[in-house]
């Protein structure tokens, strides 16, 4: 067992910021913070991803649609799908879970 301290907590970044807290072969967990008015510059990942919004409000946009999200929202994004958080009206904090671990499929 391991308690992952700080996961999903706002980190006061000046720009969008990703911090990885745990990485094992089958999954990784991190926190992604985007300040009010910030820009989400991420590109599609090679792993499946789950976001849990812990604080803030924004809109997530994918090729298949868009949705307003806020605290408690759980979002699944399959590997390879374009996605972006836009219209960030409150500091956005996301607990992020990748399966398998982030970057583990890169270069395949």
TrEMBL record:
A single Pfam family it belongs to is Cupin_2
Please give the InterPro entries that the UniProt record associates with this protein.
Answer: Cupin_2 (IPR013096), RmlC-like_jellyroll (IPR014710), RmlC_Cupin_sf (IPR011051)
Q: Which UniProt keywords apply?
A: Isomerase
A GO molecular-function descriptor: isomerase activity
Q: Which domain of life is it from?
A: Bacteria
This protein's record includes keyword Hydrolase: no
| Ranges where the Cupin type-2 domain occurs | 32-98
Q: What is this protein called?
A: Mannose-6-phosphate isomerase-like protein (Cupin superfamily)
């Amino acid at each position: 067992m391991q308690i992952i301290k700080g996961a999903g907590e706002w980190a006061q970044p000046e720009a969008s910021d990703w911090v990885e807290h745990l990485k094992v072969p089958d999954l990784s967990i991190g926190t992604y913070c985007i300040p009010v008015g910030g820009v989400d510059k991420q590109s599609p990942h090679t792993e499946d991803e789950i976001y849990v919004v812990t604080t803030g409000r924004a809109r997530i946009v994918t090729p298949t649609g868009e949705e307003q999200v806020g605290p408690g929202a759980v979002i699944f994004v399959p590997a390879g799908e374009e996605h972006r958080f836009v219209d960030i009206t409150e500091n956005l904090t996301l607990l992020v879970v990748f399966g398998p671990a982030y970057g583990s499929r890169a270069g395949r």
